[in-house]
Amino acid sequence: MTEAKKDPFVRIAKRNDISLKKKIEIKVVCVLGAVLLSIIFIWIVSGKNPLPAVNYIFQGTFKNSIKIWSALQEMVILLAIALALTPAFKMRFWNIGAQGQILMGALMTAVCMIYFKNLPNLAIIAISLVLSILGGALYGFIPAFFKAKFNTNETLFTLMMNYIAVLIVTIFTKMWRGAASSLGQINFTTKLGWLYTIANNQVIVPFICVSVLVISTYVYLKKTKHGYEIEVVGESVNTARYTGINVKKVIMRTVALSGALCGVIGFFYVAGIDHTLTEATSGSYGFTAIIVAWLSHLNPFLMIFFSFLVVFLNKGGKNLSDSSYSPNLNEYSCEFIVFLIIISILLSEFFTSYRLIFRNSKPKDSSPRHHSLTSNLLTKEDKLNG
Amino acid sequence: MEKTIELRDITKTFGSIVANKNACLKVHSGEILALLGENGSGKTTLMNMLSGLYYPDSGEIFINNKEVHITSPKDAYSFGIGMVHQHFKLIDVFTASENIILGLKGRFFIHKKYVTNKIQALLDRYGFKLDLNKKIYDMSVSEKQTVEIIKVLYRGADTLILDEPTAVLTPQETDRLFSILRKMKEDGKTIIIITHKMQEVLSLSDKVAVLRKGQVVKVVETNKANQEELADLMVGEHVTLHIDRNEPINPTKVLEVRHLTCYNEEKLKSLDDVSFDCYSGEILGIAGVSGSGQKALLEAISGLQKAENGSEIIFFDKNNVKDNLIGKNPKVIKKMGVSLAFVPEDRLGMGLVGDMGMVGNMLLRSYETGFSPFLNVKKPTELATDVKEKLEVLTPSIQTPVRKLSGGNVQKVLVGREIASQPRLLLTAYAVRGLDINTSYTIYNLLNMEKKNGMAIVYVGEDLDVLLALTDRIMVLCDGKVTGIVDSRTTDKKTIGKLMAATKEVKTND
Q1: Of A11, A225, A236, the CB nearest to B55
Q2: Chain B residues within an 8 Å CB radius of A363
Q3: I need a labelling partner for A124 at 20 to 30 A (CA). Which of A131, A180, A332, B473 fits?
Q4: Domain extents for chain A?
Q5: What is the pLDDT of residues B91-100, one digit of tens each?
Q6: HSE (side-chain half, CA atoms, 13 Å) at A242
Q7: CATH 3.30.70: does it fit domain A64-325?
């Protein structure tokens, strides 16, 4: 049986360093493939001409100025969270506790708005900001402290901290709302502690802040001694120790910074956008931002694009399911489409580093013979195939 | 039964790296073939294709003149080919016999007596000594190697490939292994041994295949070959295998280590009451089987490893002022102004940051200077350019991640940075491991030059020939203890070999 064995059916081959152009080509092909698949999916599920559905998806963001501003607002939040996570991720500290850190910042702001009513407006805002920074930083510091001292698993730790944060916020909201069904907008009549708006538009201030954050994150990571330490610790703890970097200090400092930024986002949520607090204040954006950070390879500028893309897809999917286009396309099948496209982008990363060689394909002349790396996985696959 | 294995025009590439290019090789049963080549010449890759770990991009493999496709180690065994890899693939918590039968088909329950008898027969036949019920984590490197060899034989292999089998052995253990291999050869087995040590090739093999840049450049009968000729074939040009050694110039004491004791993470003694001195203008060699405490020793001196109470590490600066380094971390040692540099064994994992370019790596030693929170890259950039030119580092630019450079160039970056600070004491661990001959000699020359300038150098090495030729004194470690400090000019390999296994002999006598 072994005598009759042929070449393996398919092999994975590592690519040479490929050009940026080729990289973009591959990504575009992957995304187009996913879009095509989505269209076929829509067509099968709805049984209708899929083109109007595409239009609905676009209108989710671009239908009118209200939709555009709303999409921009979500994009700003998502981008800010992704940026807040970046220093910790750069250090390979898998902080998935953004949700909890944001809730802590939000809670601090709500506390200020409710208990400091006799202070001037500006003072309330200033105190809220400071306390939300401290709240978020402390909430990030706790898992970092345990990681540094006892090498606990930060992923589990920060995840658990999220649940605790949700419960703490629930306790406070229940206490404040009394018998009412929800907290309602805090200081609705006095607007005390509400963030100032420009031209009555509550997106502009956060937008300016996040633009500054993009640049300062880049500078912090690339140009400062702190950023350098973060990169060394992320690459190799041993190298960091060898150089004399205090690894524990860097871990605690960086994650506290990450948490502080999340705390500020919580402040913006309560003082600038929602003017109220619920346990669902940050929604699932604490997690979605992780995807944005990864898709961008932790590059602050790429995060602008990917946070827009994710918001665009979300809004489009929601608009499609809300529309009268087809009852079969409910919110779940629309979300399915969104993730199909996101996954295809992630998958394209694989194709930019590797390629597949099939049994009878001829080697290209441009490259030195053909490249291959038979993994055990594929040898097994080969056995299944023949 | 006569058996021939032939490789024809084998090519294998990984991305842009060509590991093998049109390599041809033929081997017959009852023969010991040595594959000789520098690191990165494609010896291991070629053999991995024969043992089923990789599949060639092009080219054919013939066994007894019949083309075969080997796509897994299982396939390889069906053709009687088995390989002992350089890094052992054993399960620590299993016993020897459990490891040997691991993955083989059989009845649901293990028929222990039958298995033991079968393995014992193999052991006796070739004269191995091994306790089959010993767990792997209790074994010495040489015992682990025996398990690997038996594993291959038990699977019925008549062609044995050994990848750098002597790298981890003492000279005495090497001799024992070689006599076993000769016995196997008489038994009609085919032995292929991968190595870059010339003496071994000459003493053991029947034929030598020399590889260079992925190609088999020449196959010669061993009895017609000599060391110089083989070296020239390996490198592709004429090389002189000679290391200059000068007498130390007015040596003064730089380091005094007394009663140094350290524990490793498993709470076992990694260093046991180590005492020695280092002098300026002198190269002190450290010999020992790998894992005898070399790493702990250098790390303890540079402040990375905690030393037990009662240990003393005294550093003498230019003006003969003493500093005790015990209990100080690298940062404190640097702040004290102790002029010490360290080239660690794990280059990319400890000495350098792989994803950074040369500039970023030069920064590692100096990023903290100045009060500004921002990095100052001016001096590191100059240093990087300087190192690149002086040591002829082959890199597209000083910003290219050092991970992408070849092993030799990576080491040049590291050594270049450490020497640049002009330390009084330079610690080096396996400074030439994995390097080609020319780069190795570049490093030896650099060390000799700094020695002439009065630097005290500690050189942890594995090649005894080099240690004897390069250093002034050799301290031998065994199980964390100093078993002897000898004069390199008057001692020989055999003496050092005995010292390397000194405490082990005592143990077996117990």
Answers
A1: A11
A2: 57-58
A3: A180
A4: 2-48+351-385, 64-325
A5: 989 999 889 9
A6: 28
A7: no
